[in-house]
Amino acid sequence: MARTERNRLSPMLERFSRKVTEATGTSTAFIIALLVIVIWIATGPLFHFSDTWQLVINTGTTIVTFLMVFLIQRSQNKDALAIHLKLNEIVAALEGASNRLIDVEDLTEEEILTLHSHYRELVKMAKADLKLTQTHSIEEAAARHGIKYGTVRAKA
């Protein structure tokens, strides 16, 4: 498929994906799905609960599930990206926030675990303080903690 075809197809798929995920997340969609199951069960005696009767519901639900997985994943990917962008904007704009956390989702799992352990240390230090909101970064917390307990000298 040519790149220009993909570029034209993408907005259409995005609109379709959004509409389908919005529609399938409603009470009406649930009731329709429930009615399909009830009708299928009610027709069981008519078809003598045959293998074909069972195959109809199995095939239908498999196809719907298969397609919905991709639609929901596309929608979640877009939502996650939007949330990351909003959080990045907050981190970038907030004075005292560590810019190292911008695009933290792109770090490796090992790097994220390292950051997590640093923040656990920050929590330990903050619990020793009377006011939890006094520290803004690990470095600042370590410096304040050191000054507080006399292991680091305050800057003049």
Characterize this entry briefly.
The protein is built from 5 helices and no strands.
Walk me through this protein's architecture.
- The structure is a single chain.
- This protein has two domains: 3-93; 107-148, no CATH class.
- Helix content is 72%, strand content 0%.
- It is built from five helices and no strands.
- α1 packs across α3 and α4 (109-128) runs parallel beside α5 (138-148).
Strand content: under 5%
> What is the number of helices?
5
Described by the principal axes of the CA atoms, the overall outline is elongated
Radius of gyration, CA atoms, in whole angstroms: 27 Å
pLDDT < 50 runs, ≥5 residues: none
Which secondary-structure class do the elements indicate? mainly alpha
Give a quick account of the main beta sheet: strands, pairing sense, barrel closure. Answer: none
Domain module count: 2
Number of strands: 0
Structure keywords:
0% strand; 2 domains; 5 helices; 156 residues; mainly alpha
List the helices and strands and how they pair.
Layout: H1 3-24, H2 27-42, H3 51-93, H4 109-128, H5 138-148
Helix pairs in contact: 1-3, 4-5
